[in-house]
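Bench notes, afternoon.
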Amino acid sequence: MAWVFWFVAIVVVALFAVLTWLRRSGRTDEEGGAGPIDFAVNISLAVFLVVVAYAVVLCRDAISASDADVRAESESLVELYWAVAPLPKSTEVRNLVRAYTTQTIELDWPRMQEESLDGRTGVTLDSLRTSMLRLPSTDSELRAEALARAAEVSHARAARADNATSGLESVFMGSMIISGLLVIALPWALRRRPTLPSVIADVVRVATVVTGIVVIQLISHPYGIEGVVDPGPLKEAQVRFDEIDRLIPSDGAA
């Protein structure tokens, strides 16, 4: 998030420098060329706002999809726990399901803001699947269902990794930056000496463009802002594990 401060600071300094230059070397307000310039500014602003609006829709859809994937992963973990609970010697598997869920919350989630997953969680998932293969095959249907649920969990983790590294196409950011620069800089092409109304207009234009770019950049991938997609469903799964243990106590054997 530090980049937001530096980005805004650079823009403010640049705006101050341009206004200072125009104050020293700008001309008095003249109408010559103002009409075409104003038209070009309006077109650029329209393009900028359209791109921002479309980008917001795409980012919202990506966030919704990521949230749905987390819920699906949580449901798969709970169903996996249900499937292994009646099987003998399932204590190790239960513990590994709990460990994987806890590590996903505590280790994966902070890393996903950096567009990666923690390797230790993957190791635990591999151990879980290996341990399940060693379960006694007293109930082939439950064992097969448990293996299928474990495969779903693995798939969900892969989908979460893809979501963590996903982002807005560069064409959108490029379009926003180019159209935003035109909105800001075109009026300065007339080299008018700043007045209070023109300075206010400059500040509004700059604030509009900077706010749009910063917001889109922050939400451009689902886990970019803490709390947008939270691990709440996984925490709910941990509660469900306790409920299942009360209904079907572990045999205590590993």
